[in-house]
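Worked example (supplementary).
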Amino acid sequence: EAGVVQSPRYKIIEKKQPVAFWCNPISGHNTLYWYRQNLGQGPELLIRYENEEAVDDSQLPKDRFSAERLKGVDSTLKIQPAELGDSAVYLCASSLEQGPQETQYFGPGTRLLVL
Amino acid sequence: AQSVTQLGSHVSVSEGALVLLRCNYSSSVPPYLFWYVQYPNQGLQLLLKYTSAATLVKGINGFEAEFKKSETSFHLTKPSAHMSDAAEYFCAVTYKTGFQKLVFGTGTRLLVSP
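After joint prediction of all chains, the assembly is encoded as:
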């Protein structure tokens, strides 16, 4: 079974430029999460999807971040414009169902460096 | 709000020695607790989770953790460290009631020397 796929793995951009990250969850997983992991910290949830519906986006900085999950499968996270403080690893995860006991499966992440 | 505290940003052990990584949680309602491992340039992988069944939880790669409500702890242990255990370990907590986001600790880097 293929795991969570993310691309690109690494991205270097200049500040004020746009950037997008792509995630393909495990087949059949209805719940998809985007996390941001700053250096030396644990991941922090940005947004959670149930199928194509964003059910928790309270931590997403909506002035510059946007996300979508068309058809309830793949998802894209976008930053426009990027700021220096956005440098981090962006992790995508998926789980079969929603629910606090569900195991979340993480992708390898996209490491973003904003210069 | 729930939170976890991981004592020690770095833990060093010799190969074959006991591994003990500490995690204390704060939760006003019964928690679910998780340990994840992260190898360099990889995503997080679940080691084990506590979901209110047995308080001693066994996970992959010989790791186990014990839920102690009286101490609000969920420490991770392994009897004998292997070089391949060197990685970052994260404790995480969420609530049983409804859906609350998974809250991670700041992580503990395990270093294993020959």
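Two points are worth noting when inspecting this output. The first strand of chain A starts at residue 5 and ends at 7. The radius of gyration of chain A is 13 Å.
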